[in-house]
Amino acid sequence: MSQWISPDQIRARFAGAMSAMYRREVPQYGALIELVEEVNRDTLAADEALAAGLASAGGLHRLAVERHGAIRVGTPDELAMLRRLFAVMGMYPVGYYDLAPAGVPVHSTAFRPVADDALQKNPFRVFTSLLRPELIASDALRQQALALLDARDIFTPGVKTLIERCEVRGGLDDADADAFVAEALETFRWHSDATVDKPTYDALSAEHPLIADVVCFRGPHINHLTPRTLDIDEVQRRMPERGITPKALIEGPPPRRCPLLLRQTSFKALNEPVRFGAAAGSHTARFGEIEQRGAALTAKGRALYDRLLAEVKAQPQTSDNATHQARLTKAFAAFPDDEAALRRQGLAFFHYRVADADRRSRQRPAEAPGEAHIEALIADGALAATPMVYEDFLPVSAAGIFQSNLSADSPSVDESARRPGNHTRDSQTAFEAALGREVIDEIALYAQRERASLEAALEALKAR
Ligand code: OOG
Ligand code: NI
């Protein structure tokens, strides 16, 4: 037995500690968790097939612990150290999101587990944004922001020692793992005392509220922690009963029989009291969010999703969710809504497993597992295919979430630029240079996991 605690276990401990901390800091988060648990219970009670499917795939445990959070950092060094910190917990940078076209001066990745079994144990992910100071228009303010960032250290000496120890030794023992979790948590804690005076905060905030949020504090406080629901429309409906006011629109695709990608809604952060030296003030940073996850789409499926979403976004804006969802539903009539069609048309990624090994005998073994052979195995009940969960984020939705949580006078979104994937190679290269490695291509990762599951299932059928 290894003396090291597995990265999956460290991640589970950390996610649990983070959730407990955020519950203490933001009572509304606790109320939201209770609401989501209630709706998930009701949804499972009303849908036996869904409950059975989740239970058989081990998804009930995953659902209960599943959260994502978000932070924003200011410098390449901070981002690079975060990469090392997350690696201790088996979390790697997947995907690149450029939010600048949407009027948000950051670009981002998501640190998350990548392997099937790691995702199953605890899929905790952190959407991590890096400020782009070059987008600060005023020279003087940019210099001031850079000086403030340069003067701070968002990591405790203890966490840096433990990260290094983990890298050198190849793991952390039980006591070190607990110490790591406690020390790492310090980076994500809220600080109610700003590092600047009120005029400086106001000047940075006038440039963009996000710049003030990143630059004026001792650390990159976790700004939301999101549980996963099985019925986001129902949670949105019940939020006001709990004294929570959701943002107007649910972001992402419409409700579907076979859920696609990611649907999200958030509630606006409270204005929190902050000390600026001797002066009292406030800051709006932390909010709540819920998400419903559906199938990961192939490049072909994603292109169709982007096109249909763009059709809806091109219509005159509405702040009425029922109208918005009706428009989405109409546009997405062009997107097949049954699993077999999604699979056969190559629109979504699937996970393959042996359903009934005894049925294999009716099939002639194929040299190369061609499409017809796989279809026959599925039709015969030997092989089962289930849609893979989308583990990532959506840039248009993320922009909507950012915008809804900034103060009303923040710079407006340039709708024409709100096209996903509308980023230059150059900005991704700059982000990766700051990060200290390339980000993992999420589409390639899904494709590789799909292929591996199919190969393993065919192998198991052959071996019988
Ligand atoms: C991140 C917003 C993006 C999501 O779920 O799309 C995000 C932030 O506000 O820092 O969390
Ligand atoms: Ni989020």
UniProtKB/TrEMBL annotation:
EC number: 1.13.11.93
Listed cofactors: Fe(2+)
Ranges of biased composition (kind: Basic and acidic residues): 415-426
Entries under SMART domains matching the protein: DUF1338 (SM01150)
Region (Disordered): 407-428
The entry's keywords: Dioxygenase, Iron, Oxidoreductase
Pfam families in alphabetical order: HGLS
Protein family (similarity comment): Belongs to the 2-oxoadipate dioxygenase/decarboxylase family.
Full protein name: 2-oxoadipate dioxygenase/decarboxylase
Organism annotation: Halomonas cibimaris
